[in-house]
Amino acid sequence: MLDIKDYETFKKIKPIIKGWSSDKKYYIKTVMNEKKLLRIADISEYDSKISEFEMMKRIAESGVPMSQPIDFGVCDNGKSVYSLFTWCDGDDAEMMLPKMTESEQYALGVTSGQILRKIHEIPAPDGQEQWEARFNRKIDNKIKSYKNCGIKIDGDDKIIDYIKENRHLLEGRPQSFQHGDYHVGNMIISSEGELSIIDFNRNDYGDPWEEFNRIVWSATVSPHFATGQLNGYFHGRPPLHFFTLLALYISSNTLSSIYWAIPFGEEDVTVMKNQANDVLTWFDGMNNPIPTWYLGDISAQYER
């Protein structure tokens, strides 16, 4: 770490344990009391990390509230690669939202939807594989891996049947840049009530509507926030076609979350099994594509 540019100005270096990323993350405070985020990865990830850093610069330039990229380079005598960003001051949205009024939760949800719309303005590169072929392959792998993992969720037949009956909806879907993990766990609320987005390290290209597969985490914390996110993204109530695809994407993600959690231990498996039960409840056993947590176009209730 000593060979990181301006390392001598770091007066405080605090490891950040939160999150699933393989990156080593640190909170940095400089002698000038500037706050920064330092991420360090193995040198084998150089190409992907420089691509991620350059993309974050592009996103930041578009006006998305986020950690601003500062510097990128090689450190640890060539063994690691580092990325340095400004620090987003505030607290995790998943901790802050329950302390706020329903109207405040909804308003921040609307903001998160508007921010996501801006993120999705970045198009996928030319030559990207068609979404239908790519995601259908993912679905096949997810169903196979789930069936082979040895852990089952009650009602899995309903989830699998819904996927099989609706996978034709993938045909002709557009693609754009994706944050990759867009939910309240990757959002910061400042003391002034401003929302910022963090952790773009799972970014990808794909159907912009697939990005909502993580909204299950947001809806569990705050149905008003999740409702606001959809209404903010669509400038009002989303079309029924969106909800039908949303249920497909959430169903697919629900299956893969079970075997994904196994290496992390029984506690995480239980969390994912409970979430699967929530999904089945929200979608009435996969009979209704509009989840029960969606409260409709309720903006008029909160107009001052």
Write the layout of secondary structure elements.
Elements: E1 10-16, E2 24-30, E3 35-42, H1 46-61, E4 69-75, E5 80-86, E6 91-92, H2 93-96, H3 102-119, H4 131-148, H5 156-166, E7 176-178, E8 187-189, E9 195-197, E10 204-206, H6 215-221, H7 223-234, H8 240-261, H9 266-282
Antiparallel strand pairs: 1-2, 2-3, 3-5, 4-5, 6-8, 7-10, 8-9
Helix pairs in contact: 3-7, 4-8, 5-8, 6-7, 8-9
Describe the structure.
With 304 residues, the protein is an alpha+beta fold. 41% of the residues lie in helices and 16% in strands. The chain has helices at residues 46-61, 93-96, 102-119, 131-148, 156-166, 215-221, 223-234, 240-261, 266-282, and strands at 10-16, 24-30, 35-42, 69-75, 80-86, 91-92, 176-178, 187-189, 195-197, 204-206. The strands form 3 sheets. A 5-stranded antiparallel sheet has the order 1-2-3-5-4, with helices on one face. The chain has a 3-stranded antiparallel sheet with strand order 6-8-9. α5 packs across α8 (240-261) and α8 runs antiparallel to α9. It is globular, with a radius of gyration of 20 Å. The model has no long low-confidence stretch (mean pLDDT 93).
